[in-house]
Structure formats: structure tokens, C-alpha cells
Amino acid sequence: MNIEQMHYIAEVARTGSLTRAAENCHITVTGVSRAITLFEKELGTRLFIRSRSGTMTTPEGENIIAKITTILNQIEELKRESSSYQELNNSRLRIASIPGPISLLIESISDMKREFPGSRFEIIENNTQTVLESVHHGESDIGLVLLSEQSIPQYDHLQFEALAEDRLILVCHQESALADQSMVILNDLSDIPLVLYNDPNILTLVRQLAPNSDILFKSNNVDALLRAVRANLAVTIGTLHSLHAYGTSFHKEMVTIPLQLPDRGDSYLWSVRSTDYPVSRSSDLFIRRFKQILATRPTYGNIGASRDL
What global pTM score does this model have? Predict the structure, then answer.
């Protein structure tokens, strides 16, 4: 009894003909007939009644062939799972992200590396526009950005999926003049030095809403920005998810305050993929795992003496 015999039997039952089954299985009619005979002899049960008009299943044969069909389907499922594992274990995933989610990305990557040790990952940290362009041009498979809902339609050929609600907030030292406020607008910062992540979206927002603000410096180094805040030299603007990532080292000196902005719609952390390139199983699995990790984090959080959000 073997899998080939089961395939031949299932095909004969489906077509009702030894000849057509032989053609479909690329084997001689004699080969199909011999396989059925050996199978019947091993089981001690007749599966088919053969005549000039065709091949009919016996009542006993119908029950056995139904079980054979189930077995063959399970074998195909095993093959698909094996193929999927091999694909994932040999996958290469390129991820472009704004700074905030990086630590959570590492958690997702560690989880997948344990399950698929042969998988490879590349992470590029950059500003929002560069992340979007990287995905659009096929240089990255997945992008992670923070955008308001109404900003999404302007980007063609990109598919956005909301992963978690996020928002911009102000981070200041606990001895800052702003530390006791329950809400801050950008105009409140006109006389207070700012250190900003060098992202065109953030810089444009600040220029539009607080054109007279004093920007002490811009940097792509988040650690440098938070050190300036920790020294009470300036305040910065960040996202809730970025503060979860950097909270442990700085929480004693930091205060987070909601940043009130004009109505721009709800803001989310989005995954971005290009509609011009096929979506791999590894990217689908990675996004599912990443969403699970985000779901375990508070919707709103703080790294210090926060003000109610």
C-alpha cells in the first residue's frame, strides 16, 4: 500500500475510467490496473467493478475511497506546510521604519528567528518620507510610519494598514516651565528651545503651527534628543510608541504632555507595502506578529510623570 496507489484509485473513482485515469496520471492502463489489484488484495476488499461501459465503485469501495481522499488531502496539506516553512526559513525581509517602533521590531524579529532560524532581516531607520519612498521603489518590503488618516490618500501605489493608534506628545524635563501643564499647543513653545527628530513631517508641522519656535538642533539620533531633554536644555516632540521604547533609561527626569493639534484626524502607526510588488508570506506573518506585540502595549503610555492623555 503506497501513496501512488491511492492517487490512481482516487483518479479512477473520479473519472470512472481506467483509461482516462491512466492518461491523467501519466501511466499505462496496465500500471493503473495492477496498482488497484495489489491494493485490493492487501485490503481483502474489492473497490471497483470493471466492465466495458466503465469502472464503478463498490459500496465497500466508496467508503474506502472517501478515506483515501481524506488521506491524500492531508498529505497535500503537509506538503504545503512544509513548503511554507521552507519559504519562511529562507526568507529575507527588508523593513524601513521611523525610530519609534524599532525596539518592538526587534522583539518581533527575535520571535520569528526562533521559529525560522534561517530567515534574514534588514532594518533601516529613517524619516517618514524616506520610508515611504523606500517602499514605493521596492527597496523595502515593509514600512512603518506615523500618519493621520487624512494624510493617506495622497500616496499612490502604497497600501496602508493601521496597526495601532498613536499620537504626537511633548516630552520635557520635570523642572521645565511646561511640566505642570495638562495640555500644550505648539504656540506655547515659542520661547522654549526645541530639539526635533529630522523628519520632514514633524519639521513642516512645527514651521506651520509655530513659525517662531527656537529649534536648538535637529537629529536622527533619538538618544541625543532625549539627552538634551534630560539635561533640561530643550523639549522634544515624540510619539507614544517611541517613548515606550526609550522610557526605561530616562523616566525619572521626563514628563509627557498631550500635544494639542488642529483637527488632522486620528493618527496611527501604519504598516506600508507597495501594490506594485508581490506580498510574501514572511511579510504577512511578520505584520501579524508585530500587531500582536502592539496589542499588548497600552494604547496611551508615558515614561515619567505624565499628564492625562
Answer: 0.61
